[in-house]
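Q: what sequence does this backbone want?
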């Protein structure tokens, strides 16, 4: 009975360490881009992708169903996700959309009356 208890405790400790090791390694973040994989590999690849590959592990593979390329980045920070999204926009549209500095505009009477309720809903969520 004592041997069984010791084995159970040791098994739980091993499982806990394995979960901690899996959580510590960064996950892959992938996007599908409408571009040929050959365009994104080698010396002719875009500068943004080359700079991203200098700091992170990058994998470019053909997307399922012949839908272009899949760019996957293994990174631990959120900035790499933003860079991959910007890269996708740049490759597909030729520009990166930015939301910074856009004014809210003038509120109408109806908009001003609904603002407190909107703020409460976004803070608390729907119930």
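A:
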């Amino acid at each position: 009975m004592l041997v069984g208890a010791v084995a159970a405790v040791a098994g739980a400790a091993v499982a806990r360490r394995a979960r901690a090791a899996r959580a510590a390694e960064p996950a892959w973040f992938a996007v599908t881009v409408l571009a040929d994989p050959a365009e994104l590999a080698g010396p002719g690849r875009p500068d943004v992708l080359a700079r991203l590959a200098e700091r992170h592990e990058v994998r470019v593979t053909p997307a399922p169903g012949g839908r272009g390329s899949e760019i996957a980045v293994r990174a631990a920070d959120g900035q790499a996700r933003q860079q991959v999204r910007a890269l996708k926009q740049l490759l597909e549209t030729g520009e990166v959309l930015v939301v910074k500095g856009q004014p809210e505009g003038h509120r109408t009477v109806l908009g001003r009356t609904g603002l407190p309720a909107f703020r409460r809903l976004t803070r608390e969520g729907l119930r």
